[in-house]
């Protein structure tokens, strides 16, 4: 099963805020199978969409090297449901980034109407305890970021573009050498 | 300078938000882990909320002295040595370690921190 709960980034300002969109489609199994007879995108998956938007905002701070995981849902308030055919917009901003964790505050709208308010906390896996844990293989991770068009819209606050980090370029090149 | 009551109110708000407990559960003598059910990941949240609420910076080792508890020079047979206890007291003058000293098992240390300890720590950080 694919695990993309956003379709693409439309705005990404490194270390500050990001916006991503997702079209809700009846072709997604969860939309009509989660609650047979009622078609909507489950709230848990919408939280995951915000976690992907915010998690990548956090991960970019370390050039996508830190192993960022969703650690806690501080709060999640839903105002309506996301029906098939609607366009969701995930907006989030970084509210805190102490060394071993980060906090994101976000809102989700459905066709412009308030859908959810979320507060999420992320943790970075520590090298001392999780040295063998690989969350994403770099070339595959980079492919995912390209699919989400992060590098097409990503900028730093001063307007410089967010480029594909060197370690990811190297990983992509190494992968190509295999074939 | 915030009063003792103001510090307690803000600490209580941080704990209620971070741990999902009721206001009246946050009593001065309540332990964060044993009584309020804090798990390790919650401490990151609590620290962030205290930093924001009081405008202070909280270095991890000031509240979680893992460098002392994991140092073989201060730990023997799973228990903190007298030197280790002295080091902990020096690092954490705000914490009441009387109970811990009676049987200083490393694994029990996380159970020690109380709401009152946290308030004393914050008061110390804001210069009270």
What key phrases describe this protein's structure?
heterodimer; A: 179 residues; alpha+beta; 6 helices; 7 strands; globular; B: 128 residues; mainly alpha; two-stranded antiparallel ribbon; 7 helices; 51% helix
For this entry, what is the oligomeric state of its chains?
Answer: heterodimer
Low-confidence stretches of chain B: none
- Percent helix among the residues of chain A? 25-40%
With helices defined by DSSP (H or I, 4 residues minimum), what is the helix count of chain B?
7
Tally of DSSP β-strands of chain B: 2
Shape of chain A: globular
Task: Show the largest interface.
Answer: A-B, 11 and 11 residues
Low-confidence stretches of chain A: none
Sheet of most strands of chain A? 7 strands, mixed
Could you tell me the radius of gyration of chain A in angstroms? 17 Å
Q: How far is it from the N-terminal to the C-terminal residue of chain B, by CA?
A: 7 Å
Number of helices of chain A: 6
Q: Helix and strand succession of chain A?
A: EEHHEEEEHHHEH
- Strand element count of chain A: 7
């Amino acid at each position: 099963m694919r695990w993309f709960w956003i379709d693409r980034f439309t705005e990404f300002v490194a270390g500050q805020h990001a916006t991503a969109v997702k079209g809700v489609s009846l072709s997604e199994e969860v939309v009509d199978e989660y609650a047979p007879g009622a078609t909507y995108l489950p709230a848990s998956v919408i939280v995951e969409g915000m976690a992907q938007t915010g998690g990548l905002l956090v991960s970019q701070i370390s050039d996508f090297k830190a192993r960022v995981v969703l650690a806690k849902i501080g709060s999640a308030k839903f105002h309506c449901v996301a029906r098939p055919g609607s366009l969701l917009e995930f907006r989030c901003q970084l509210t805190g980034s102490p060394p071993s964790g980060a906090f994101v505050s976000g809102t989700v709208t459905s066709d412009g109407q308030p859908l959810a308010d979320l507060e999420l906390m992320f943790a970075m896996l520590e090298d001392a305890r999780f040295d063998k844990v690989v969350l994403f293989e770099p070339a595959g991770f980079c492919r995912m970021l390209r699919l989400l068009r992060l590098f097409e819209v990503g900028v730093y606050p001063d307007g410089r573009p967010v480029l594909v980090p060197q370690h990811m370029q190297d990983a992509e090149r190494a992968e190509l050498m295999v074939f | 300078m915030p009063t003792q009551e103001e510090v307690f109110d803000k600490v209580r708000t941080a704990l209620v938000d971070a741990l999902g407990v009721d206001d009246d559960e946050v009593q001065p003598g309540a332990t964060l882990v044993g009584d309020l059910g804090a798990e390790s990941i919650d401490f990151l949240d609590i620290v962030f909320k205290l930093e924001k609420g009081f405008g202070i910076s909280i270095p991890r080792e000031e509240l979680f002295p893992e460098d002392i508890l994991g140092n073989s020079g201060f730990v023997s047979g799973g228990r903190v040595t007298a030197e280790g206890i002295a080091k902990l007291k020096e690092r954490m003058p705000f914490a009441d370690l009387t109970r811990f000293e009676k049987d200083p098992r490393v694994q029990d240390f996380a159970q020690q921190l109380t709401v009152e300890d946290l308030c004393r720590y914050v008061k110390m950080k804001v210069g009270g």
